[in-house]
Amino acid sequence: MKAARHIGAIAMTSLVAGSVSSIFAAYHFNNTAPFGLIGNALALPVISTLVMPFAVLGLLAMPFDLDWLPFAVMGYGIKAVIAVAHMVASHSPSGNLGLMPQGTLICMSIGLVLSFAFSTRLRLCGIPLMLGAAIWMMRAQEPDIGQACRTSN
């Protein structure tokens, strides 16, 4: 039961962080990571057991010139995280959403804040904002570069 709560907490943390950061990635880079939650859930145990603790041990061992062993273990953990990232990315569909209008970013951000920040029924107010933002995003048209070039000449 304790392990299930721990895994659930990791999944919820990844869901919240992934949801919030994905809208800004979509706005700035026109791309998202559709399987980011899965990648985080698979990589986090390795980071928690091999990377971070051995990073701290390596720093503590530096004055004694014994940092090579903890950093070697940390390196194996980093290689495992990279392997997980490659495995998840190889199965992930394209996350390219296209151009996101500024209003979509604002509506989605406010909707996510309402949904994640409140613990009362007030969080349900975020759902219409997020749905409206999704509809706005689907209706957005890509810029016509050819048109812009023709009008500037």
TrEMBL record:
<feature type="transmembrane region" description="Helical">
    <location>
        <begin position="41"/>
        <end position="61"/>
    </location>
</feature>
<feature type="domain" description="ComEC/Rec2-related protein">
    <location>
        <begin position="7"/>
        <end position="117"/>
    </location>
</feature>
<protein>
    <recommendedName>
        <fullName>ComEC/Rec2-related protein domain-containing protein</fullName>
    </recommendedName>
</protein>
<dbReference type="InterPro" id="IPR004477">
    <property type="entry name" value="ComEC_N"/>
</dbReference>
<feature type="transmembrane region" description="Helical">
    <location>
        <begin position="68"/>
        <end position="88"/>
    </location>
</feature>
<keyword id="KW-1133">Transmembrane helix</keyword>
<keyword id="KW-0812">Transmembrane</keyword>
<dbReference type="Pfam" id="PF03772">
    <property type="entry name" value="Competence"/>
</dbReference>
<feature type="transmembrane region" description="Helical">
    <location>
        <begin position="7"/>
        <end position="29"/>
    </location>
</feature>
<feature type="transmembrane region" description="Helical">
    <location>
        <begin position="100"/>
        <end position="120"/>
    </location>
</feature>
<keyword id="KW-0472">Membrane</keyword>
